[in-house]
């Protein structure tokens, strides 16, 4: 699961990437190729479970972020940036909203609405060009050979072309499982889920809001939008003492650090939920696709658990916290035993019974 971070020059992409992954990027360095990094998912439920069980080991789930080369005329014209984006599972667009005379803007002045619209339009144009070229090739082929699958693909791409001409991303385009198989390998960028991060200034911390045109665009195009001050978050991230970090965040009015906001939003975009395994040896957080059946969740832990799945013993996180211990959960009859059809829910605490 990879989330690609994109944006125009001087938007704060590198700073946000550092906040999320801890990867230090030398000042003034030019990014020629994608830079991968990994972030622990901040989840207060995991922290409370660790405090309750005091395990020998603890392992939060992690998510991959990839910093992509900046979107400039050169990378757009060459198409290299789009090749990089096509390899991602979701996209995080960073839009500059902070004023700083020491940091230039390629268009002369800061305008988050303009920048967001420009990038979104470029992504749609990329998919339009790809669809048009593919239609041209199919049309030539179909004149020579009447292939049923290619005829279906041609009709599907024609519908996609009309959709894109209306300046709508393909994640809003309805597609059947059969049609999905026809285009699965195609680098259609606007089919990917997308987050938009408005990188605000320090004076706006706690009071920043998404401009109405951007909010309207995000709602229309099914994008999540967040306000983050990456510069200040980067300074706080340098602090070693956890209590000092917490105090700084509280003083600034930052209810939740960027890492928590972004990782949760990324999980939603990727269609993933968390479940937990607990015990004195280890408390661990796992990720699985939303609505996955219990055997699939078991397979995330180990393939043997999926292969030999018998049942899943499930404790609901809220009930464990309310009752205080597993013993009290069982005493209250709140531990449920579920078979292969059970769909794992966010926050479930699982104990998998299996035999191989």
C-alpha geometry: flat
Count of individual helical segments:
15
Rg: 23 Å
Strand content: 15-25%
Write down the domain tally.
3
Distance between the termini: 29 Å
Described by strand count, sense and barrel closure, the largest sheet is:
6 strands, mixed
The third-level CATH topology of the largest domain is: Rossmann fold
Mean pLDDT: 90
The succession of helices and strands, N to C, reads EHEHEEHHEHHHEHEHHHEEHHEHHEE
Keywords: Metal-binding
InterPro entries: ATPase_YchF/OLA1 (IPR004396), Beta-grasp_dom_sf (IPR012675), P-loop_NTPase (IPR027417), TGS-like (IPR012676), TGS-like_dom_sf (IPR023192), YchF_C (IPR013029)
Protein name: YchF family ATPase
Domain YchF C-terminal: 273-354
Provide an overview of this structure:
The chain has 356 residues and is an alpha/beta fold. The chain has 3 domains: 2-40 and 62-109 and 191-269, P-loop containing nucleotide triphosphate hydrolases (Rossmann fold), CATH 3.40.50.300; 123-190, Orthogonal Bundle (DNA polymerase, domain 1), CATH 1.10.150; 291-354, Beta-grasp domain (Ubiquitin-like (UB roll)), CATH 3.10.20.30. The protein contains 15 helices and 12 strands. The chain has helices at 13-21, 44-53, 73-78, 80-86, 112-144, 148-165, 177-183, 212-220, 230-237, 242-252, 258-270, 294-301, 303-307, 317-323, 326-331, and strands spanning 2-7, 35-40, 57-59, 62-67, 90-96, 193-199, 224-228, 272-277, 282-289, 309-316, 336-338, 348-354. It has a 6-stranded mixed sheet, sandwiched between helices. A 3-stranded mixed sheet has the order 3-9-8, sandwiched between helices. Strands 11-10-12 form a 3-stranded antiparallel sheet. Helix 1 packs parallel to helix 9 and helix 5 (112-144) packs antiparallel against helix 6. The two termini are 29 Å apart.
